[in-house]
Amino acid sequence: MSPQNIVARSRDSGLDLIAVCDHNSAENAAAAIRAGQKQGLAVLPGMEICSREEVHILTLFGDLEKALAMQDYVYARLPGKNQPDVFGFQVVANEFDEVLGENSRLLIGATQLGLHDIEQQAHTLGGLCLCSHVDRPGFGIIGQLGFIPPDLVLDGVEVSYRVPLSAARDTIPGIGRLPCVTSSDAHRLAEIGRANTGFVLAAPTLEEIRLALEGKDGRKIAI
C-alpha cells in the first residue's frame, strides 16, 4: 500500500478521484497527492477518525493544510503508543515509495473526541464529514449507538462494498435522507476499486463533491 502502488492500482481500476483516509492520521496524504499528480489521478486528503464512542467518521478536505490541521487536533487527543509487534509498523513514506520514518502513536485506537467534536472541527476547517460504513455493526454509528444523533451535522453516510448503493436506503435503517456514498475502504491493493461512487462533477475537487452531495447546480451522485 505504498503511494505509487495505490495510485497505479486506482488508475488501473478506472478511478479518477480517490481519498486517502488513514486511521487517525493524514501523514501519508501528501505523498499520495504528489504521486497522483504524476499519474493523472486526483487525490483528496482525509482521515478516518475513531471517536470516543468507537464510531468511525470520515473527514475529507480540499487541501493538505486543512487535513494536517485536523491531524494536529486529533493527535493532541489520541492516547497510547503503537506496539509494532502487535499492530504492525506504521510507516511514513514519500511519493517515491521511500520510507521517511515511522509513526509511534496508537493509530488503531480511539481518540478522546466525541462525535460532535470531530464533526464541528472538520466543518470549521471547511471539510466534509460522513459516517463510515454505516451498514457494519462494528465501528458503524448505527451499530454502536443504535441511531444517528439528530443534532450531528453530517454531509452524508458511507456504506461498505457489501451493500449496493442503490439498495442502501432500503436495507439500512436509520440513515434517513442523508446522502449515501460507497467506497472500497481498501486496506490492501487488491481491494482498491471493489466499490466506488459515481459523481457528476465539473472538476474532481472537494467543493464539487460538496455540491453533488447537496444535489446543487447539476452536480449529483450518479447511481
Number of structural units classed as domains:
1
Ends apart, CA distance between termini: 28 Å
CATH topology: TIM Barrel
- CATH architecture identity: Alpha-Beta Barrel
Lateral arrangement of strands in the main beta sheet: 1-2-3-6-7-8
Q: What is the SS-derived class?
A: alpha/beta
Which overall shape is indicated by the principal axes computed on the Cα atoms? globular
CATH class: Alpha Beta
Describe, in short, the structure shown.
The chain is α/β, with parallel strands linked by helices and 223 residues long. The protein contains 8 helices and 10 strands.
Topology:
Elements: H1 3-12, E1 17-23, H2 29-39, E2 42-50, E3 56-60, H3 64-75, H4 84-87, E4 91-93, E5 99-102, H5 115-124, E6 128-131, H6 141-145, E7 156-159, H7 168-171, E8 180-182, E9 198-200, H8 206-214, E10 220-222
Parallel strand pairs: 1-2, 6-7, 7-8
Antiparallel strand pairs: 2-3, 3-6, 4-5, 9-10
Helix pairs in contact: 1-2
Descriptive report:
- The protein contains eight helices and ten strands.
- The protein has 223 residues and is of the alpha/beta class.
- Strands 1-2-3-6-7-8 form a six-stranded mixed sheet. A two-stranded antiparallel sheet has the order 4-5. The protein has a two-stranded antiparallel sheet with strand order 9-10.
